[in-house]
Design goal:
The protein contains five helices and nine strands. By secondary structure, the chain is of the alpha+beta class. The chain has two domains: 81 residues; 128 residues, no CATH class. Helix 1 packs antiparallel against helix 5. The protein is globular. It starts with a helix and ends with a helix.
Length: 216
């Protein structure tokens, strides 16, 4: 009877904790902000749904595709594809706005959410002279012609409260102060790391209980 009690308690605990962990791991995906080189800058964003760690295009602003490629290689990053960037936006920030001049109201919130997540703070001159704008662009791995790569970004009109999609082919040696690159690398999904770590720790506890029970 004594041994039965010792084995039943950890077994029930294992079942309860495993159920909690599995429930947590199936929860909706989250973007987790962390730092790049300097504490507190929040310029790395982990997408737990895809297992991709995104470097904010703010880091590479002003660098051409060729220059960003050197940085990406040295840091273990790669260029994201245009599809990966569009998926990032639609899955986490809102609908992709129109490319039409002056944008649309629905795109304002999408741009706002993207800018807040990736630390885009600067105000730039607008195509509409009376407005105040924020913008970020990022070069991707997608190429439609030799020597160019697709650049994707969002432009936000502050007074009009609209957002516009920027999507164009840019020469690999051409730079612009508002344009960086969408660089990513694969990382383990945080929820998976928690699940594995907790399971390992719980397994050690159960083994300890069993050793203790065998001595009685």
């Amino acid at each position: 009877m004594r041994n039965r009690r010792c084995f039943t308690t950890p077994t029930l605990l294992l079942a309860v904790v495993a159920n909690v962990l599995l429930t947590a791991s199936s929860a909706s995906a989250t973007l987790l902000k962390t730092d790049f080189l300097s504490p507190g800058n929040g310029l790395l964003v982990i997408d737990t749904a895809t297992g991709l760690e995104w470097l904010s295009p703010v880091v590479t602003q002003g660098a051409s595709y060729n220059s960003a490629a050197v940085l990406a290689t040295s840091l273990g990053f790669r260029f994201a594809s245009a599809t990966e960037v569009f998926d990032l936006i639609t899955d986490n920030f809102g609908p992709i706005p129109t490319t039409a001049f002056l944008g649309e109201v629905a795109g304002y919130g999408t741009a706002q959410n993207l800018f807040e997540a990736f630390g885009v703070l600067g105000v730039v001159a607008c195509p509409a002279p009376t407005d105040v704008c924020r913008v970020t662009e990022g070069l991707t791995s997608t190429s439609s012609s030799v020597g160019t790569h697709e650049s994707i970004g969002l432009l936000q009109y502050g007074i009009l409260q609209t957002g516009q999609l920027l999507d164009s082919a840019i020469a690999d040696d051409l730079s612009a102060f508002e344009r960086g690159s969408w660089l990513v690398k694969s990382v383990p999904e945080p929820s998976s790391l928690v699940l594995v770590s907790a399971a390992w720790g719980l397994g050690s506890m159960v083994r300890g209980w069993r050793r203790l029970a065998s001595r009685r």
